[in-house]
Amino acid sequence: MTKLLSFACLFFFFSINTFSQKIITTIQPDKSVKVAKLVPVKDTLSHWTNKNKIGFDISEIAFVNWNAGGTSSISGLLKTKFNRVYATDNYSWSNELIMRYGLNKQDGIELRKTEDAFQFSSTLGYRKDTLSNWYHSAKFNLNTQFTNGYSYPNKEISVSSPFAPAYIFLGLGAEYATKKKDEMLYLSPFTSKITFVLDQRLANLGAFGVVKAVYDLNGNLISEGERAKIELGFLLTALYKKEILKNITLENRLSLYSDYINNFGNIDIDYDLMLDLKVNEYVKTNIGLHIIYDDDIKAKEELNGNQVTVGPKTQLKQVLGVGILYQF
User: What DSSP designation does 209 have?
Assistant: First the structure.
């Protein structure tokens, strides 16, 4: 899986536009000397479309002799999005890599993680004619994180780590996609969901739905927890992006998944809403709302100084940031 992660990163960071060269001959004023020079010309025959976004959001608040009280803090979020699309009349191959990582520091409190995401998706589609926006599609998704996660204030025992969990979706279905890729709907009746928990300690606890370890009555380990769980189910994903007002863009992403084998009808929900407000070419404000519900993810609570595992709960994250965004 580490090789897969490395390959995805290399694919996006070293993918470039194809260029050709042509020779242009110029004649000096005296008409006696001809000078040839090479001029780079973009290959207009390329079917690739590349989009890159790199941004950094920062927020800070400081108090000095402030009678109302308060805690000084500073937060930073680095975010990137890389898109590579190969399109012909009948074929489409879309690739997207999203990476985000954020940190927060408050007075008297250690550095804490606020955001951590690695998301790679690839969709290969075929349509019979150019009049239709429906494609026969095969889709691959990978979601994981970069560093350990903790249920603060406990920072001694991690509740997640790189590839613990990691989710892979691989399936066949039908996808509706506009030419600009701003409206997309994917339906798959056959999608395999593989959950990896490569941290053996977490796997032994049965974290994220894998089979936990078995112990005897004396607490001796009989068999270790499984580090992967395979499901087969129905997947629906949707994307809607629109400029609702001048310089204000709304983007919605929705994913619904239900496993046929284990408790069919119980739906995993992943909904992401982002509102981008453009100040100028480089400065943007964004407001985000992210909601997740997964029956396999059990919440952690602090009880009398100990972490206690409770049932699944709706996860909610709200983001407000102002920062610099560079597109190329």
Answer: G
Block residue for tokens 């709706």: 314
pLDDT digits (tens, 9 = 90+) for 207-234: 999 999 999 999 999 999 999 999 999 9
The answer as to whether 59 is a domain residue is yes
Among 60, 119, 73, smallest CA distance to 321 is for 60
How far is residue 158 from each of residues 100, 164, 165, 247, measured CA to CA in Å?
A: 20, 10, 12, 41
Q: What is the pLDDT of residues 71-106, one digit of tens each?
A: 899 999 999 999 999 999 999 999 999 999 999 999
Distance of alpha carbon 13 from its chain centroid, rounded?
Answer: 16
CB-CB contact of 299 with 313 (8 Å): yes
- Report residue 122 as tokens: 């690839």
Q: What is the CATH number of the domain that holds 201?
A: 2.40.230
Q: State phi, psi for 151 to the nearest 5 degrees.
A: -95, 90
Domain count, the chain: 1
At a CB cut-off of 8 Å and minimum separation 6, what does 103 contact?
75, 76, 111, 112, 113, 114
Q: In angstroms, rounded to a whole number, what is the distance separating the alpha carbons of residues 182 and 250? A: 11
